[in-house]
Amino acid sequence: MLEAKDVSKEYQTRGDTLRILSGVTFSLAPGESASVIGPSGSGKSTLLYILGALEPPSAGTVTLSGRDPFLLDDRSLAAFRNKEIGFVFQDHHLLPQCSVLENVLIPTLVSQDGTANFKERARWLLDHAGLSQRLHHRPAELSGGEKQRVALARALILKPHLLLCDEPTGNLDRASTETVASLLLDLHQSERTILVVVTHNTELAARFSRQFKLLEGKLHPL
Questions:
Q1: CATH label of the domain that carries residue 71
Q2: What secondary structure does DSSP assign to 28-69, as a single string?
Q3: What is the residue range of 176's domain?
Q4: 3-class DSSP state for residue 112?
Q5: pLDDT digits (tens, 9 = 90+) for 43-90
Q6: Is residue 151 part of a domain?
Q7: Is 196 part of a structural domain of the chain?
Q8: Which residues pair with 36 in a beta bridge?
């Protein structure tokens, strides 16, 4: 389970307090998905970073499989993020000097199981993404949609329990958006991840089993 309880986030700015999130509470079970929409600056990305243990909340708790990552030391927290959480951002963040297959395997470099044990899974993910003929291409040789499909395969390589996507189709045309969205939902169902997607795309948001709107720091179910 992913559980957020009374999560708030504040920043101090020149003697003033800027509140971004206020009392956000929700939970998701394995196999469930949720989309979060809201205007720019509403705190969508901040919420995603807190769920992904990249940024601590000012108040409240976030637990994944009963564990609060913010109680871990730095080394354990890094290991927790690497194994338990997959990230897909608007920009694919692929390494230009690495091949498609090498990019997908990057998270395994610090895994105790070793990279070799994940090569078959990497090939399966890329084949599922329609990229079996692109394994040895560099990112510069791929389209925007293909790069984002590689990023999705990379996010899933270690079989994370939680998959977080921040505007995953924000830089794509309509056709590529449809391809990436369908692949995302297909892999989510087959992997039974907990999936949270932040997006401005209302058509994409409507495809998820649970839908929320973040407005003035509060999360409202739609």
A1: 3.40.50.300
A2: E-TT-EEEEE--TTSSHHHHHHHHTTSS--SEEEEEETTB-G
A3: 2-94+159-221
A4: coil
A5: 999 999 999 999 999 999 999 999 999 999 999 999 999 999 999 998
A6: no
A7: yes
A8: 198, 212
Residue 83 included in any domain: yes
Q: Is residue 88 part of a domain?
A: yes
Type and span of the H or E element at 25 = strand 16-28
Q: How many domains does the chain have?
A: 1
- 218 CB-contact burial (10 Å; exposed 0-12 / middle 13-18 / buried 19+): middle
In the predicted model, what is the mean pLDDT of residues 131-136? 96
| Rounded Cα distance, 195 and 116, in Å | 27
Cβ partners under 8 Å of residue 20, min gap 6: 9, 10, 11, 43, 46, 217
Tell me which residue of 153, 155, 177, 154 sits closest to 164, measured CA to CA. 155
CA distances from 87 to 49, 107, 195, 216 (A): 10, 11, 10, 25
**pLDDT tens, position by position, 53-66:** 999 999 999 999 99
